[in-house]
Amino acid sequence: MNASAPNLEPALTERDVVSFVIDSREVQAGDVFFALSQPDYANNGFNGDFEDATKYVPGALEQGAIACVVRSDRFEEHREQLEDLADRILFVDDTVVALQRLAHGVYLEWNRPVVAITGSAGKTTAKELTAHVLEGSGRKVLKNIKNYNNGLGHPLTVLNLAKDPTFDVAVLEMGMSTPMHEIERLCRVTPPDYSVVLNVLPVHVEHLGSIENVAAAKAEIVEGMKAGGQAVLNADDPRVMAMASLAGGSIITYGIENPADVYAKNIEYVSFGETSFTLVLPSGEACVSFPLNGRHNISNALAAAAVGHAFGMTAAEIAAQLSSAEPPPQRGEILHFAAGFTVVNDSYNSNPDALLSMVQTLKAGAEDAKRLIVVAGEMRSEEGGGGEEG
Fold it and tell me: Are residues 228 and 289 in the same domain?
């Protein structure tokens, strides 16, 4: 990272940083504020028009930020605001790249296993399930906040290791929406020890041109693994299984329909919010009472189970964690109302495949219901922000 800070106050390098932020409204005493501008977003694959945050640097410093990171070519335009504050500003060529390189440095110092997860749908649910499974082994797990899975949210998550280096493992979802090798960049920040690929669906085709290009973009998570890493692949998706040749190391497969190392049998939809199945691992099997709806969520559970197996957990240990899991908000969330009706909220960035799976599950579990009403909204790709949703 080319950085220029000839007047940076020496005492700043000796102070403990509380947090790293990109939203000036979130700045607290002791934080470092990264002031992003339109070129930073555009050069790193973010679509849309964004505000130049350089103008918020004085306010961030007044709120207690100990330093700000600013794109050097923004100085002249904001000279009047920034000139007297230069001893608290670090000038860089690209603030997004600076954020990512800082996160990579923190990762290198931490140096523990990384589980990376991608797919066209289900990333956040699979991440939450995987983290929950690994916590059952006594490990302390770092995971993305919400769906912070892009070139901004990912490094901000990793920088939490600077505040608390006691995490045993990181479970990080990686998203993409443009043909700018976003996942490859994220793998440079935190090279995965385990790369999980959930599925390849026609999402972001408007940006990438074809589903084959979507598959190639998702495959970057396998190509970006550490030497000797392990790929966890969905045996029910042929485009995912085609990535096995890229792994360079061992692979573990999971699935429902096709033969796999980790699979589910005896699947039974008991009621809203309860699906039972037998989890089968190479090392044994155990019964799961799974609280998430939909066949797609069983697949997500199997991905998490495959990671747990890779970490040496038994079938019984994994089954216990899956049975106590909770759906992330708005992803198959079940709401019971006193008036006697039930709402299944699966509204967070739904997609046609997940919607079809959910409707099939509801039909199977709603035999005693008087009516089943499905409300579906528009489904489209987001244009930028915290991360690829799904």
Answer: yes
